[in-house]
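Students often ask what a holo structure prediction actually looks like on paper. The answer is less mysterious than it sounds. You provide the chain, you provide the ligand, and the output is a string of discrete structure tokens encoding the 3D arrangement of the protein together with adenosine-5'-triphosphate.
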Amino acid sequence: MEKGKRPNAPPKKGMGGKKPTDTTDPVKNFERWKKKYDKTKTRVKQEKRQKRKPEWLVEKESIQRLVNKYNEINAQDAVKFSDFPISKNTLRGLMEAQYRQPTEIQRQTIGFALQGKDVLGAAKTGSGKTLAFLIPVLECLYRQQWTAMDGLGALIISPTRELAYQTFEMLRKVGKNHEFSAGLIIGGKDLKNESEKIHRTNIIICTPGRLLHHMDGTAAFHISDLQMLVLDEADRILDMGFADTINAIVENLPKTRQTLLFSATQTKSVKDLARLSLKDPEYVWVHEKAKFSTPATLEQNYVVCELHQKVNLLFSFIRSHLQKKVIVFFASCKEVQYLFRVFCRLRPGVPILALHGKQQQMKRVEVYNDFIKRKNAVLFATDIAARGLDFPAVNWVLQFDCPEDANTYIHRVGRTARYKEGGEALLVLLPSEEQGMLSQLQEKKVPIDRIQVNPDKLTSVQQKLEAFLAQETEQKERAQRCFVSYLRSVYLMKNKDVFDVFRLRLQEYAEMSKKKPEKETKYKEAKKVLKRHFQVNTKVVFTEEGQVVQQWPPLQRTAVPQPEEDHTPGINVEEARERLRREDQEFDKLEYRRKVKEKHREKRLKEKAARRDASKQHNEEPGEAEEVEPYIEVDSGEEFDPSTLPDPDKLHNDSEEDNQMEECGGTRKRSHSDSSSCSDEEEEEAVGSRKRPRRQAASLPLDTGLSLAEDEELVMHLLGNRS
Ligand SMILES: Nc1ncnc2c1ncn2[C@@H]1O[C@H](COP(=O)(O)OP(=O)(O)OP(=O)(O)O)[C@@H](O)[C@H]1O
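The corresponding structure tokens follow.
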């Protein structure tokens, strides 16, 4: 008997009142040992068997285990990516790229997509839509153990090259542990090289025009096994005139595919596209009930500013935000090109970059990467940068020109305040645009306040601009074209409540200011400017015999007699301005007369052709009614189609900016770039209805697509304002 123990004391109770294990009973001990031994033996046996299995079988079994869990997915409870039945390879890729927890759109989409459903997804800008479709793409191909031999498995269509490039980079990051091949098929790259590789590519990220090109012309391009189609920024794809292209592409894809369609904004055309391309889709509209349609961390304001003060406002803004990263949006390529040059010369003290649709592809990528890397810089851009681009740490978005509509506004401001970060946005409105734009923004749940700018506090760059223009005829020409291009873009805007070219105060804008300072002051100012040694870029081309070749676009020939030579030192700005004004008037009148003549001639030809057709039809039997195809209509058709308008510069066969300064600020660097003018909807791959008339326009006399009376009204208005 043990010391201190009462003989009749009850046995001590363990947890739950169980009796303590009796270690003295040999039979029970043996049974316990046997059980453990059997368990270990089975495990070891299993492991051995597993080891003997070929790798593909092990993988197949693990895939099957994942697939079995698809029906149990509970998106509401998913906190980490690992809460979804996702392959180890994808999970590792996500972790390595520092993505641990899914965002709302990812949480709500991934489950449906894994279950094989079609999804129509919408969420605010910067909310992580890219991963919401990249993860299902990777899983879809992994599930099927897709290899290079299987060819194309997934197709991701983006509206712009930059967005396609960005998605490609993201795919490379999160998909790096898989063995799929991926390719970027966008315009501006070597078509032959693409064609050679295309049949071995499993995931293609592309822009619509280029894709159609390959579908039509590359023999090795097979899409019959396609498993998944993704349409990213679908509304933008349609806005850019790619509806027919997308229709043609979708028609050629196998019906058994899965389709995911994403956009930050929903439009009627997206719904039409969804109807045609998706089967019983799941609608994932993450922020449908949100109070505002823009990120909560974004602060938004607008200012009302007269047209002729806008450049001063921009300069003053940049000067007071030198340590920030800013994107400035303009309405057309011409404006970006012209103001980029002007601001380079003004040297605001921060690097300025320019991104627009008519730069060479290499240049575009270079600018894109450059802006990503910089801590403080200003990017002048057209709407090619408005959608989807994920530049890190952008502090400000300034909209120099009013956006086409509230959706474009939302996408533009979405370049800042991305994924939980903060950001600020400033919209510059003309007095005539204020009411119409504000009511649109309110309707779209955009919280925006008006702020006042004291005009006296603005730095005027007026004098400097005048000095540049007086120094450089070419620059003056660009300014004119920028002006016309701006007016044209305003004239072509559909929403006339906001954009009314006839309410613009053009005279002030054309002259920048009516105020005439003292003559002496101007002279002094011009001398000061000269002292600062502004470099003037000129390009002179010689023939082999050493003769100077006429520049292209042709310089505006002098239409007024040359004044006698002025021997005063420096520039007589007043005199130069007056002469330029008179030249403009004369030149415009001559041009106008020529265009009207052309127009009449063209009209006569058209009428003749119509008469010929009519008589032909009369002789023919009446045919059957045209078959109606279920294609998507983007526009109502009542509206005027701006794509039928040529760019005024196409008439000049614009190849002006060979020797363009592409970046300026701290360091000045010269580089070659092709650039001609375009407004930005003119992404050069646009092969749909928008592009073709444009190409023809380059060789035809000016056809604005408007009626003769409308043409005359617009031109008379412009001339009237300038005389
Ligand atoms: N789960 C996540 N965890 C952390 N960061 C994320 C996550 N998902 C996305 N991000 C980051 O959020 C940013 C925005 O993502 P993304 O570009 O996919 O947004 P978006 O919704 O497509 O925006 P937009 O509508 O402007 O195209 C990116 O920088 C991305 O790296």
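The mean pLDDT is 76.
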